[in-house]
User: Fold this.
Amino acid sequence: MASMWQEFSKGLWKEIPPFRVVLGLCPTLAVTKSAENGLGMGVAVIFVLVLSNVLISAVRGIIPKKVRIVCFIAISATLVVAVELLMQAFTYPLYQQLGIFVPLIVVNCIILGRAEAFAAKNPVHLALADGLGMGMGFTIALTLIGSIRELLGTGGIFGHNVMWNGFEPFGIMVEAPGAFLALGTVVALMNFYTAWAARRAGLEVPENASCQGGCSGCATGQR
Amino acid sequence: MPQTDITSLKPLFVVETPPYIHNGVTIHGMMRDTLLALAPAMILALMAHGVAAFRVMALAAGVSVLVEAMCVRIAGQKLRIEDGTALISGLLLAFMLPVQAPWWLVTVGAALSMILGKHVFGGLGANPLCTPLVGWACLSISWPKYMNPSAMVLNTDFLDPLLRLKFFGTQSISPETYKALLMGEQLGGLGSVYIGALLLGGIFLVARRAVRWEIPVAYLLTVYALGFLLWHIDPARYIAPELYLLTGSTVFAAFFLATDHPSSPFSIWGIALFGVLAGAMTVLIRAYGTHLDGAPFAILLANLFTPLLDMIRPVPWGGRK
Assistant:
């Protein structure tokens, strides 16, 4: 149980995608025009990520090493089609907003990255915890970026106006450059906080605060 | 053979780290020259608009200096406000804003120029884009209404020549008004409309060698040549080539924005290509684009090519090709 909690919680801060494990940038930059879009995309990714992690972990013994990527893609593509059809059936306006980025979850680096680096090597219950944690982290991150962009770019959050009267919307934040500005600012603040916390605890400040090395992201690269 | 203690040997010459020769040019001096070059246009703007122009310029420069001091403090660098780069950057931004710009527009623009345009990349000398243009681009994408001089400046007899040329036909500005346009009797940026004064300032800058003369020459020649070509093809559809220079911020951009040292290439061929690219984009944006003034976005685009153009390196003396 303790190890399950550990695998779950690492996705929420220590290895939170896209801030720490810089994966899945395409939806992060493209669909976070509003907090609602970010949340919807995050939930779709949780669904696909949890199920693909569980399925891949369950069949990891019988997937041949040489064609494993094809198998991972086939599994996640199946799940993404399911998500797409579900969204068309129940949340059609959101589906229209997200557009091409729902089918593109197939090639989302987080799905493949977790499959390759974690699910293919670990038992089902740990893969479930990992997928849930990473998916939740991704959802939180997308909702946060979406909120920042929506707040500055339109003056509201989740469609509710919260800024003062006479606030002039900072239009660039809902354009493409705003996504980079919001992502970069959040990553910088997280690094700043990590360095500050390490200094406060009397530890040595790491050169690159966002990466302590040895996480599963590096394992993907080293293979 | 007597033993010699190595440590007791004093070297005849001590080799220090380069640079060995300093030509006397300092950032401080270059910025003082730029300030002098901007002075005629600044005085004309103050004479025309009075306190309103002073308000925009002082606010932009003040916010730039303050934000620079803050960023330098956060990054733990040495404070070098006295070199004047932040002051000049704020002034250059103010020159492109309409004179009635609200205070928050000026403040946000100056702060964004300094943060996004300069200090996220490492501060002085590390900016890949012309610093004031970054703030200008953010403002004109976010608040096009407030950046539009014909909507902001109402108590004036002047017309916005860019607007007229784009939407009222190429003949809407006659050659008789060229002298008035040169003197700044047109609607546009606070300081960038004083074409004649800026031209004088630019020539002063070139003469003082504070900027490379090749950049404005390559840029303005390309603008004129391409404008002439288009005008030759169809005078009814395209504006006369002089008007590319006499309206908008083309001259201002050529001497003060394109020549920004960190964001422009250094080799002669790189500079030529840089000028051609920026000039061609200026004409294309003004002839076909949705934006009225082509120069600022053209310079930004050309700045992005600078790292590529800097791969054209001069052959070192005695080196092989």
Observations:
- The two ends of chain A are 29 Å apart (CA to CA).
- Strands of chain A lie at 156-157, 160-161.
- The first strand of chain A starts at residue 156 and ends at 157.
